[in-house]
Amino acid sequence: MVETRSPATLKPVIPGNRQRWLIYGGIGILVIGSVVFLRSRSAAPPEPAPVVQTQTDRYVGALGRLEPEGRVAKLTAPQSGFSQARIAELRVEEGDRVEAGQILAVLDNQPELAAAAAAANSAVAVAQADLNRILAGAKSTERQTQQQQINRIQAELAIAQREYDRNQALFQSGAIAATALDSKRLEVERLRGELAVARSTLDSLAEAQPEQVQLAQARLAQAQAQAQEAAAKLANTVIRAPFAGQVLRVNSRPGESGSDDGVIELARTDRMQVIAEVYETDVGRIQVGQPVTITSEHGGFSGSLKGRVALIGGKIDKKGVFSTDPASDIDSRVVEVRIDLDPSDRQRVSQLTNLQVLVRIDAGRS
């Protein structure tokens, strides 16, 4: 009879060799995993990949404007006293080139102040002549006349002295009264007094007195000071060019007084430069000497201009040059950077003062 078992009572039978290999394989996997894990923790972190500066990051862009070196000088009419002088004569027109010191305009108060200066110079001449006369003393004819006066008094005194001596003898003999003797004595004393005065006068004519010299010198100094003041006022009746340059604009015509923009605007247009407004976040990348490329935003000139950074401003301010882009930030903070144009490009833009330009600074070179 065959014995049968139900499935619930059946047990799987695994051969002994297969069971051992399964155990060994599990242990090997655990060992290899542990080694890999420990090596990954002890290994140094990989070096970061080098950052390559892109072509876009290399450049700093900004808006700017063309300006003459030293900017534009606004020449005004000097104010004289409480009144503002008017233009009497205009000697230049817009576009004219002038030299340093050249007269550009004449004011209407020139004739009046010229007469005052002439009168002041005449007063100096008179004061100088008075001082010279005092230092030289009196003329020889005056001294001779005074000496003759002394000689006459001395002769009269000698006669009066003899008369007094004779009357004194007569008085002692009782021939004349005392009143007659007193009369002769008074005459002698009078002549002696006149002689002393005459000699003193001669001394004053022969040698200038210190107080007279000092007074004359003070009068001369006062006259000279007044003449200098008059000359300064006369010099202010003309407007001169402070430097050689070009007349950009004439703001006042004959018969008009100076405006807030001055009478004449003058600039060195042969030395044009660019004033770029660089964002404060970019100014740290800018260095003196870096090359710059300038183009016109609205076609003011063709092609591009070349230059180099010459000066980085030390003041952060609001933007003064604005883009036509409505999305641009008008409240941005910027630093002015001066760019000197290459000599070959200066003449190209000599007539484009205040033209707005686009600036690209090569921050990767110097």
UniProtKB/TrEMBL annotation:
Instruction: Indicate the transmembrane segments per the record.
Output: 21-38
InterPro entries linked to this entry:
ABC_heterocyst_DevB, UPF0194_transport
- Spell out the GO cellular component terms annotated for this protein, sorted alphabetically and separated by semicolons: cell envelope
Tell me yes or no: is Membrane among this UniProt entry's keywords: yes
Coiled-coil stretches are 143-240
What superkingdom does the record give? Bacteria
Q: What is its main location?
A: other
Keyword Manganese annotated: no
What Gene3D superfamilies does the entry give? 2.40.30.170, 2.40.50.100
Keywords attached to this entry: Coiled coil, Membrane, Transmembrane, Transmembrane helix
Q: Where does it localize?
A: Cell envelope
Q: What is this protein called?
A: HlyD family efflux transporter periplasmic adaptor subunit
Q: Organism source for this protein?
A: Synechococcus elongatus PCC 11802
